[in-house]
């Protein structure tokens, strides 16, 4: 098993990174600009897994290493994750991008709806650009990117996408690194859906509010 | 036919619906029954052959969050919205609501061709949608004493199936029986004759009192040579402490399992007991469901025709005061004389009669009391259950023809492979929670999953499974369990997912024989 640090990446990976950055620039110039200005020393340590794929790990606040993806077979892990996703949801908000395996698994499963990727850590996003060919996903108009610690504009993005139903799917290994951030993200998405449903389906909404009142008392 | 049954909580009430479910399946062999309940109660129905699907919501958690964490309001709304929208799309032919207002609103939102029980409409509010439910409601409101029908039979009538068409049912897998044996053995009960005593009840006015129970327990130990198992929830520990205090020192004949049992363990413990002595409690219904004879005390608000133990051969002591059954025990002006009129002597006599029935001994029944009536429950097919008054029956021969407690074959786990099936399903359930981002649910259940593996290791050792496999498994499982402990503390979800998907799965494959296993491989791994 080899352990690669960000700076020890091969030339091919740098080409891939630049190729990804170009594609991202076309899609979201602002985000591409932020990524390119990041410090090259990553907190994430990548390593090759038993299956030959790449995984990443990071020390948490207690000094314990925590894996972002399976240390055995991240592709299989992502495939199993994607197999539980209900394909009829018009949109899926994926909380935590990691290295991107589960996004690819979702598309591989022929999911045709919108995917909203929400990632708190730009450095992790940058790491994924070193190893994964993200250019096709940057060109995919049905994939929306929100890579920022500042959640104040998330609601605007949701309103702009204007979807009636969003299935919120945290990718736990990645999303548990910033639990408060992803909790707030979930709250914002839920508030958005709540307001939308109250307006669009008033009788069903009234019934559910009554059920909640019964539960409370 | 697609049927939805709604009952959210109170485990006795849910168990009381199991005969109706059985009757429904007999009447409509192609029907599919979905049961909507709370997460805490879903274990009652797992492995029930008459329930095809259980849908549950975390009712307690929702209640807590709605009262204390309003920031979760939108989330709860959305979860319920999505769940109900999904159920609405299933187009149920029938909904049987046994949960009053909450169930009525739910039934209205989900919709069905026929809805039985309470229903809701925005125009009329809540109302009863079928004549039999109306009869039941009227009976309870106007004069409960007129009602001579058990709620189990009422449920059957409401659902349109014959009463007495089914038995109470609760599945106790083999592994839980094994764990109950181990638990009892830890407390020094090895094949001893056991009598279970449920000390408490959810409401304090339903408790007969630790002092009274102490006399019965002492009598059971000293005169009858029994060991007594105390049952109840953690809240009822105070009652048990009073009994221990009266014994003075720790008594090896009293096995205190208060607060130590979940539903499956409780059912398993009851199966091991010869009898249960209890007030009107959920445990009483659990005993009926697993085929353990009951001696039940009814007074105050409890009315034995309505909620007595279901099935033939249980005994009910009923304090038939003028004011019984009452609605407002907190306003009682007679000092709860109904509860006080049942004395330990009544229990002793009922116990002796119950033993005579169990041993099929023909003997004269020596019981008479003006205030405390003794009844024997009698349930037969196509008929409502009745309570046969023991008062006045001169000879047990009159009731000798009553069948033994009709139990049903428990879901046979078939030893290890059955347990493997259970563990495999639990593992998949956990993976689903993980992949849907339900970290709380995952972390709540993962320790139980690991606990199941620990149980299996004991089981494998006890049952002397093939030694090579046994040693190999234990060597493979113990590091996995240690890694699970580390990963749980670190909340390393990828590692936990890998454990379920690879390490524990490998153990399942070996135990179920789906993975080729040779002595050589076993040796090689042992060396590693």
Summarize this entry quickly.
Helices cover 49% and strands 17% of the residues of chain A. By secondary structure, chain A is an alpha/beta fold.
Question: Can you walk through the features of this model?
Answer:
The complex is a heterodimer of chains A (217) and B (528). The termini of chain A are far apart. In chain A, strands 1-2-3-4 form a four-stranded antiparallel beta sheet, with no helix packed on it. A four-stranded parallel beta sheet of chain A has the order 7-6-5-8. In chain A, strand 2 and strand 3 (54-59) form a beta hairpin. Chain A has helices at residues 11-27, 29-36, 74-83, 101-108, 122-131, 135-139, 154-161, 172-175, 179-200, 202-216, and strands spanning 3-4, 45-48, 54-59, 65-67, 91-95, 114-119, 143-147, 166-170. In chain A, helix 1 packs across helix 5 (122-131) and helix 7 (154-161) runs parallel beside helix 9 (179-200). Chain A is globular and about 55 Å long. With 217 residues, chain A is an alpha/beta fold. In chain A, 49% of the residues lie in helices and 17% in strands. With 528 residues, chain B is of the alpha/beta class. Helix content of chain B is 48%, strand content 14%. Chain B has 20 helices and 14 strands. Chain B has helices spanning 11-15, 18-27, 59-68, 73-88, 100-110, 131-142, 151-159, 174-186, 210-222, 237-247, 263-272, 282-290, 304-307, 337-341, 344-358, 415-435, 439-462, 467-490, 493-512, 519-527, and strands at residues 2-6, 32-38, 53-57, 92-97, 112-121, 125-128, 194-198, 227-231, 254-256, 275-278, 294-298, 315-319, 372-378, 386-389. Chain B has an eight-stranded mixed beta sheet with strand order 9-8-7-10-11-12-13-14, sandwiched between helices. Chain B has a six-stranded mixed beta sheet with strand order 3-2-1-4-5-6. In chain B, helix 10 (237-247) links the parallel strand 8 and strand 9 (254-256). The longest helix of chain B has 24 residues, at 439-462. Chain B is globular. The chains are: A alpha/beta (217), B alpha/beta (528). The interface between A and B is large, with 48 and 43 residues.
